[in-house]
């Protein structure tokens, strides 16, 4: 049986010298959904590929960057990325990442977004994804398992699209700056310090960075902090440690930024994540 048809299996297979997975096509099984669990190390990923099915990448912990002709999406915990059928994309894990991947048959994906989109994973959707991942590959579409899949598909289609899209620059030089900030959002280097190794002025760097991402370097750094904060909050790191790691003046400043971005405090975010 092809690996991607196996529920609850870790993602494995042939990898290149950088640890990136070679293309592994999703099997043409007569089921609307094929799902599995995966855990990937930081820096690994999958080279450009596409699927005949739509794909929902649901992140439990860590974060993943997915690039296509539409741009680059960075997906933090408790969010999922919908990728329509036939969209060519590559993946890169920015940290140790735990995923649930749901492949949706083309006709069953007609109600989903027509382009790549980051969606909120509600407690109900999270439970449905886990339950469907544990189904046998040849589950009975006409019985209770098929009805469970129908509810899952309805919930994916109804999930609100979130603005948590962190665009990455296309040019290698600016991508290095972005990668540096994603690796260490607390890096306090000035525009001049980032620009000097690139033989650019600070003004040129800012102009080019905004042209390629739509964000100033300052705004990008703030978004990178938010994404890392989501990772650490989901891992139940203490607020004081998160604040120190991300370079805030104190926990109150971090909590204020988190609440401004997500509408709740980190503690409330955790309770909602648990379904409270």
From TrEMBL:
For this protein, what is any one GO molecular function term? DNA-binding transcription factor activity
Alphabetized SUPFAM superfamilies for the sequence: Homeodomain-like, RmlC-like cupins
Please tell me whether the keyword Acetylation is annotated for this protein.
Answer: no
Which species is listed as the source? Azorhizobium oxalatiphilum
Could you tell me which residues belong to the region Disordered? 1-24
Keyword match DNA repair: no
- What protein does this entry describe? AraC family transcriptional regulator
Q: Which UniProt keywords apply?
A: DNA-binding, Transcription, Transcription regulation
């Amino acid at each position: 049986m092809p690996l991607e048809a196996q529920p609850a299996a870790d993602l494995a297979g042939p990898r290149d010298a950088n640890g990136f997975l070679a293309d592994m096509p999703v099997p043409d099984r007569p089921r609307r959904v094929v799902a599995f669990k995966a855990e990937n190390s930081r820096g690994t990923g999958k080279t450009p590929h596409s699927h005949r099915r739509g794909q929902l990448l649901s992140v439990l912990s860590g974060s993943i960057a997915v690039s296509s002709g539409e741009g680059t999406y960075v997906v933090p915990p408790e969010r999922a990325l919908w990728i329509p059928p036939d969209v060519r994309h590559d993946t890169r894990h920015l940290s140790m990442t735990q995923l649930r991947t749901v492949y949706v048959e083309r006709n069953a994906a007609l109600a989903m977004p027509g382009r790549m989109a980051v969606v909120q994973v509600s407690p109900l959707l999270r439970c449905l994804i886990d339950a469907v991942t544990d189904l046998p590959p040849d589950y009975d579409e006409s019985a209770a398992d098929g009805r469970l899949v129908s509810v899952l598909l309805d919930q994916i289609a109804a999930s609100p699209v979130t603005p948590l899209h962190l665009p990455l620059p296309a040019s290698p030089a600016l991508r290095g700056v972005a990668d540096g900030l994603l690796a260490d959002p607390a890096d306090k280097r000035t525009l001049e310090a980032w620009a000097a190794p690139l033989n650019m002025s600070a003004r040129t760097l800012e102009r080019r960075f905004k042209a390629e991402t739509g964000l100033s370097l300052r705004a990008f750094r703030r978004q990178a902090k938010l994404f890392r904060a989501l990772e650490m909050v989901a891992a139940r790191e203490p607020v004081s440690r998160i604040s120190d790691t991300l370079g805030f003046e104190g926990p109150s400043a971090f909590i204020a930024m988190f609440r401004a971005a997500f509408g709740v405090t980190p503690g409330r975010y955790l309770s909602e994540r648990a379904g409270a």
